[in-house]
Amino acid sequence: MGSQGPGGPPGVRAPYTVLLLPLGTSRRDPGARSFFLWLQRMQALEREQDALWQGLELLGHGRAWFEGRLREAQQRQLHLGALGENFLTDLHSEPRGPQLAQIQKVNMCLQNLIQEKELSRQQKGSIQPKWKTAQPGCPKMQQGPTRV
Q1: Cβ(80)–Cβ(93) below 8 Å
Q2: CA gap 95, 48 in Å, rounded
Q3: Which residue stretches belong to region Disordered (predicted)?
Q4: Residue 51 burial (CB count, 10 A)
Q5: Are 20 and 8 in contact (CB under 8 A)?
Q6: Which of 94, 114, 138, 144 could anchor a disulfide with 109, C-beta 3.0 to 4.6 Å?
Q7: Beta bridge partners of 8
Q8: What are the helix (H) ranges across the chain?
Q9: For residue range 5-21, what is the model confidence (pLDDT) as tens digits?
């Protein structure tokens, strides 16, 4: 269908095509029903693979973005350290509050996604309590102290 080869994701994603072949039997036939369910499962797996490839591509871009912001923050810290007590004369430094909150939210969402998958692997089908599952709003996780 739309699966990616070992070389990675293609540049253009083809739309899904579903081909239904007449089986010459009724809709209640177990073979026809089994084929239909198999086809549905294959499509779901294809959609999951496409989402994972897209996520992998976004993580690559995200990694580059995070590395750039990290270098900038390190440079600002060095600059501020060099100013010492005269830091109030630096009119170029701006607080990064809203962006920091967004970065922390992204980090929490990624950690929740990874932890949820790890927990499901460990529990192998056992049902998790509702309070332990990650919610779509990416709830706050416990954070350690920031090291300076």
Answers
A1: yes
A2: 39
A3: 121-148
A4: 10
A5: no
A6: 138
A7: 5
A8: 30-83, 97-123
A9: 555 555 556 566 665 66
